[in-house]
């Protein structure tokens, strides 16, 4: 039978992650200490180091949790395309569905931006962040492929690169919105410009009949 500490580990990890997210939100990544996170979670430093090697590793675990929530929202939005009326813009519908930015999302954006700057200054942290970001981007690229399938279109560019561009538009738009919330909605740029961009980087799939007819001429 598993020992008690082994069975309690998921609960300990979850409490440390929750405490870290709250502490990071209040004090920032650099301002938050491991001691403060442990105190908020009700654990000792020993419990922290039995779950996470560094504060950076703790952030990356939070990154993976947030990434999964992003993938879940995008998946639901793509799946919901089957319910749209024929005259609706599918790309705009997906972007609108996932564009809600509440206080929790705002806090995460501030934290992730701070950690990105931290990683840019530290090559080891940059490599770790790039690895986790790459896994999220692979999921997003796969969902873009599903979206093009639903649109009856074939992408003419690399989906990984398109996922990078889509993320850049989203994050850049959000940054400008947080600076000027009265002038720019969080996803206004993405909802306005990504639909025509997706048309420009894809082409309609040809049917078998069309390909056969072309071969006969």
From TrEMBL:
DNA-binding span(s): 33-52
UniProt keyword annotation of Disulfide bond present: no
InterPro entries assigned: BetI_C (IPR039538), Homeodomain-like_sf (IPR009057), HTH-type_TetR-like_transc_reg (IPR050109), HTH_TetR (IPR001647), Tet_transcr_reg_TetR-rel_C_sf (IPR036271)
Cited Gene3D superfamilies: Tetracycline Repressor, domain 2
Keywords in alphabetical order: DNA-binding, Repressor, Transcription, Transcription regulation
Domain HTH tetR-type, chain residue ranges per copy: 10-70
Keyword match Transferase: no
Pfam families: TetR_C_6, TetR_N
Stated name of the protein: TetR/AcrR family transcriptional regulator
Protein species of origin: Streptomyces cavernicola
